[in-house]
Amino acid sequence: MRIILLSGGSGRRLWPLSNDSRSKQFLKVLSSPEGQPESMIQRVWRQLQQADLQAQAVVATSRAQADILYSQIGSSVPLVIEPERRDTFPAIALSSSYLSSIEGVGRHEAVAVLPVDSHVEDEFFSRVMELRTVILSGLVELALIGVEPTLPSSKYGYIIPEIVPEQAIGPHLRVSRFQEKPAEDQAARLLKQGAFWNCGVFAFRLGWMLDHIESLGLPADYEELRNSYAQLPKISFDHQVAERTRSISVLPYQGSWKDLGTWNTLTEEMDRALIGRGTISEDSRNTHLINELDIPVAVLGISDAVVAVSPDGILVSDKAASPRLKEVLRAEAEQRPMYEECPWGWYRVIDYNRYDSQSEMLTRRMNIHAGQRIPAHAHRLREELWLVLYGEGEALVDGDRRTVREGDTLLIPPGTEHALLAHTRMEVMEVQRGPELTDEDYVELGNGAG
Prior knowledge:
Blueprint: E1 2-7, E2 30-31, E3 37-38, H1 40-50, E4 57-62, H2 66-73, E5 79-82, H3 88-101, E6 110-115, E7 118-120, H4 124-137, E8 142-147, E9 158-161, E10 173-179, H5 184-192, E11 196-205, H6 206-215, H7 222-227, H8 237-240, E12 248-253, E13 257-259, H9 263-268, E14 274-275, E15 279-280, E16 288-291, E17 298-299, E18 305-310, E19 313-318, E20 339-342, E21 345-356, E22 359-368, E23 373-378, E24 383-390, E25 392-397, E26 400-405, E27 409-412, E28 418-422, E29 426-434, E30 443-446
Parallel strand pairs: 1-4, 1-6, 4-5, 8-12, 14-16, 15-17, 16-18
Antiparallel strand pairs: 2-3, 6-11, 7-13, 8-11, 9-10, 9-11, 10-12, 18-19, 20-21, 21-22, 22-29, 23-28, 23-30, 24-27, 24-29, 25-26, 25-28
Domain Cupin type-2: 365-427
GO molecular function: mannose-1-phosphate guanylyltransferase (GTP) activity
Protein name: Cupin domain-containing protein
């Protein structure tokens, strides 16, 4: 069985830690079995390895998330990068064509699709493998996993099965219909009908998906589909495919499953109440503080709350109210990300100013891991000033290589090739100045220093 991991979307429900470049699945607020900080994507990737499925997986994502994915789960992971964000159906279609055209997967192989932001136990992946059996049996076109609900929740979609013994396919049940997030009273009625939570995990035969792409008048070849990506409907897989497919089964799952999409659900799975610099008073019960800044934060006498502090902002919220966060952030939607992980390390924006329509300035502190490099590149519009704060490395500026260490400065005019290789861990303060400071003003030139 092949696996498609869906890691798209920008997600602001975990603001201020999540932003357009660092979505919720990349926040290192969980703990690994060794007690080390771990993100949702790192947890799922580790669990796939334990289930002997990691080598069968590709990750569908956006260009903005490629660097942080490589940073967190390794540069060898195969990524299917969407030319633009267009919802889950286009992402799955492009990934399916990648498996066929690039990796040579046969049309009869089963493919399972999983989100990266669900918190499940290891045995869940054994259940995922069972989807392959029913798909390859040819009895259904689509096979899903349905989580047995613990309460009538309005936060999830529901799968309503046909509760007729002859409709069962082994442990699987035929699906009657779907219900998007209902009100709690309706959810209670659905539970009496044997409904399951829809956890977003399903499987199909690769050829069946390729046929669906071609039925839309689009090519199943990967490169051709990539070039035609804007023609794919901007729609979820549920609406485009699942709700229009008649032959579907659902495999019940009774174990632990949780969507860590809001602060109240995420903090339930955190084994530390305090991450970063700060203090929580003893009478602040069931309160979590996550602080990414180098300033102290004190929480006194506030219970059932989450306090999150990052370069992007500060959140103080009652946990029960935290799902409303997205509603009140519309005014901040266009703010540039102030923190980002990269394959070479990370950076934090310290200051940003627009002086007039032709003059912007941005200052950021960069941390480059020992042995890592900022590849050779140039900028058409902006100049940069590098000040080495800590460590030692080798810089390339306009063809000139030189050793740099604490206190050294480098002025990089527009159009100048530059790169940096860190011999030790390095910290560099970078000041950018120009008429327009955008990620698009970047010309990659090669490996550069080293």
